[in-house]
Design brief:
Strands 1-2 form a two-stranded antiparallel ribbon. By secondary structure, the protein is mostly helical. It has 25 helices and 2 strands. Helices cover 43% and strands 1% of the residues. The protein binds a DNA duplex through helix 13, helix 14, helix 15, helix 16 and helix 17.
DNA sequence: GTCCCTTTGAAGCGC
DNA sequence: GCGCTTCAAAGGGAC
């Protein structure tokens, strides 16, 4: 869902924060949004299950869809109530003032009373937060909170067979992980699930070598680095995780002193990457989950580096690897959201193709409320902070060329005339979601977001933004036909976005070159922290009005559908 | 076995 | 400053 871009200027987008435009009316709106999101999923489900149904009659399906979508709003509202309650509490204390993210109960509900075992190991209770369910998830009551712990390790990622055990997977674990590639689907090997006895299913005291990747913490290291998530540090000032007997192998040893942080830094940390290898050790000496072992990541270049195979001596190889560790980029807000929600989407529908799931996630992302998105933006910002602190010299440029070399080459060719496109490059724009379904979303990704007149968010995102951008009018079908291999996104930087959106942006800047002009530009949140209260009030008023427009536009979606199908 | 697809966002580079 | 490119996650599908 796009954010307001109230012409705040570049600095507004710089902080990756958003204004909390929350008001009483938003609850209703959020419910509506989530019903819509639920509808999206239903659509996808039905469309995929019943393949023959596709495209028969967009208008008809649209008519059918709306009532169907409201069939069971309760199922979505329940968790939403929970979430709303958290939101309300959050607002009482100011936005992001308190440690908790309302949507991150694990941040608030660590068992601070007894988070540790006597030996310093993390007690099962302390891990509770890791396995708690995301409130947005359709958890039947709160029963799943602790039950899930017993059955599933909290660090299991969304690669877990979520379809089979969707409610046992903590969505936040993938949310804030630097790498969960270690999480094997299906029954994880015992060494990958150190917390649960594979036989008894009872949490067990992990072997130091097993535990350490998750919550090791050096007491001495605590506080050495300014905590980027200091606002999340428990009031007690007590580190959430103590140093395991084996010492640390935590990716962020100095920073993993609270649940959020620990989750943030540890869950992306793969046991595979547990610094058995020198190349997993950052130059600072701090192992980091973002440092990917070539053996794991299978990078094209380094993949062949193997002391046993290579003629080079292991020492040389080591040196080489130490020279160029692959430090992953910090995840952005959407990536964090994806990691969290993927499991849910996969669990809720039969979809398995990530491309399709990502489309859904993209739509859901836009349908998120600003507060919800704000969580992820904030989390992403913290992660970037953390990343930058751990790797001051690291640049995103460092990873250029380390991934998908071929693709890049083909991309170079893609800059040439289309005739030179390889068949593979031409294979694009697989429409995973039926056109009418795509439009169904309040603000679907890419195409729908920018092209669909039904994208209310785009129109309402900025007071100055004209309702339909030129691209919306000119390319109502861009979703189904993408001109280039990867035309989507290319969103301006936050600052640019704000500037662009504040001055009827999409008509001029974003549409000039790329057909993938997108109003996702408008989806950038306004850093709420940078706005004065008065502005917030004004923005809130606007937001309310915008929400009305939003709903109005939603009602008008069938029209846009007809238009699209006619095209 | 490798790459593509798909999503959004961040960062870097070139003009 | 703007536009474009690359990468981040994920996993089924295509080749």
């Amino acid at each position: 869902m796009p954010q307001l871009n109230g012409g705040g200027g570049d600095d507004l987008g710089a902080n990756d924060e958003m204004i909390s435009f929350k008001d009483e009316g938003e609850q209703e709106d959020k419910i509506s949004e989530n019903v819509s999101a639920e509808r999206d999923l239903d659509d996808v489900k039905s469309s995929l299950v019943n393949e023959s149904e596709n495209n028969s009659s967009s208008s008809d399906s649209e008519v059918e869809r709306r009532p169907r979508a409201r069939q069971d709003p309760e199922s979505y509202e329940k968790p939403r109530d929970y979430f709303s309650e958290a939101l309300r509490r959050q607002q009482d204390g100011g936005f992001f003032k308190n440690p908790p993210y309302p949507g991150y109960p694990f941040l608030m509900i660590p068992d601070l009373s007894n988070p540790y075992l006597s030996n310093g190991s993390l007690s099962p209770g302390a891990r509770t937060y890791l396995q708690m369910k995301w409130p947005l998830l359709d958890v039947p009551g709160s029963a799943g909170l602790k039950d899930s712990r017993a059955s599933t390790p909290g660090h299991l990622s969304n690669k877990v067979p979520v379809v089979q055990h969707p409610h046992h997977v903590h969505p936040l674990t993938p949310l804030i992980t630097y790498s969960n590639e270690h999480f094997s689907p299906g029954t994880p090997p015992s060494h990958l699930s150190p917390e649960i006895d594979p036989k008894t299913g009872i949490p067990r005291t992990p072997h130091p070598s097993e535990l350490s990747p998750y919550y090791p913490l050096s007491p001495g290291a605590v506080g050495q680095i300014p905590h980027p998530l200091g606002w999340l540090v428990p009031q007690q000032g007590q580190p959430m995780y103590s140093l395991p007997p084996g010492g640390f192998r935590h990716p962020y040893p100095a920073l993993a002193m609270n649940p959020s942080m620990s989750s943030l830094v540890s869950s992306r940390f793969s046991p595979h990457m547990v610094p058995h290898h020198a190349h997993s050790i950052h130059q600072t000496g701090i192992p980091h989950p973002a440092i990917v072992s070539p053996a794991i990541k299978q990078e094209p270049v380094q993949d062949n580096i193997s002391p046993t195979i290579h003629s080079k001596s292991p020492v040389q190889v080591k040196k080489e690897e130490e020279k160029k560790p692959h430090i992953k980029k910090p995840l952005n807000a959407f990536m964090l959201y994806m990691k969290e929600m993927r499991a849910k989407v996969v669990a809720e529908c039969t979809l398995k193709e990530s491309a399709a799931i990502n489309q859904i996630l993209g739509r859901r992302w836009h349908s998120l409320s600003r507060e919800e998105q704000a969580k992820y933006y904030e989390l992403a910002r913290k992660e970037r902070q953390l990343h930058s602190q751990l790797y001051p010299g690291w640049s995103a440029r460092d990873n250029y060329g380390k991934r998908k070399k071929r693709k890049r080459e083909s991309k170079q060719s893609s800059s040439e005339p289309e005739d030179n496109f390889s068949s593979r490059n031409k294979k694009q724009c697989v429409q995973y979601l039926p056109p009418e379904k795509m439009c169904d979303s309040p603000a679907s990704s890419h195409g729908s977001m920018l092209d669909s007149p039904a994208t209310p968010s785009a129109a309402l995102a900025s007071p100055a933004a004209p309702a339909p951008t030129h691209s919306e009018q000119a390319q109502p079908l861009s979703l189904t036909t993408k001109p280039e291999g990867r035309p989507q996104h290319h969103f301006p930087l936050p600052g640019k976005l704000s500037a662009a959106s504040s001055s009827s942006s999409s008509s001029s800047s974003s549409s000039s070159t790329s057909s993938s002009t997108s109003s996702p530009l408008l989806s950038r949140p306004i850093p709420f922290s940078s706005l004065p209260p008065s502005m917030l009030t004004t923005a809130s008023h606007f937001h309310q009005a915008a929400l009305h427009s939003h709903h109005a536009l939603l009602q008008s979606q069938p029209l846009s559908l007809v238009t699209k199908s006619n095209d």
